[in-house]
Each structure stands twice: as structure tokens, then as C-alpha cells.
Amino acid sequence: MTSARRAHRPLRARPWLDERGAGTVLAIALLAVVVVFGVAGVSLGAALSARQRVIGAADLAALAAADAASGAIGGAPCDVAAAVARGNGAGLAGCRTDGLVVTVEASGSFAGIPISARSSAGPSR
After folding, report:
1. pLDDT (tens digit per residue) in 24-68
2. Do 102 and 87 touch, CB atoms closer than 8 A?
3. CA dist., res. 114 & res. 46, Å (int)
4. Quick one: which of 6, 92, 3, 83 has its CA closest to 75?
5. Contact at 8 Å (CB) between 54 and 116?
6. pTM for the predicted model, two decimal places
């Protein structure tokens, strides 16, 4: 068999040597990796956003409760804190007053994962 005949022999006898479609498989694999990283990035961003929402709710609830404790606004400090936390998309997990200083703990969740934040407000000592 001459080298010219050997060069024209069909590759179907050995299909593992056929590289047709290899670029398509590589492109699909690369696209899958990009999609996985994209979904992970969006999920991480949503989780951090939920965490910041709970932290903000705790801060605002503590400030409102401290105002109620000082008499600047009406109502019981812990009741005011619960209403403010609820209005900001979180729940009030705990509330403690020590004179004019109020410490609150707000809670929430993201995808079933509990998130909590604690904040204090009041005059400095």
C-alpha cells in the first residue's frame, strides 16, 4: 500500500480518530461552566442582599426603639422595634432595654438559611 492510498483511507474504520464535532463539545462545556458561575454569582449576590436587609432592619428597629425609650415617639420600645423590623422585611427575634439603650435582634432567612443581626442604639455612656 502506497502512502497516497493510506492518506485517502476513510477514518470510519477507527472512529476514535475522527475529531469532527470536538469543537462543539468544547463550546458546550465552556458554556456550561459560564452558566454555573453566573448562577453562583447571582445566588451569592442575592444572599448578601438578604443579609444587608436584615442588618438594616436591626439598625432601624434599634434606633426607633431608642427613640421610644427616650420618649421622642410614643409606644413601648420593643413594640416599636417589632413594627419597624416587620416593615423592613425581617422579624424581631429579641429586644432588651437597659435604661435608654435598646438592643434588638432581627432575623430573616434566605433559601431556608437563617440570618440574624443584632444592633444597639441609645445615648453613649
Report:
1. 889 999 999 999 999 999 999 999 999 999 999 999 999 999 999
2. no
3. 14
4. 83
5. yes
6. 0.75
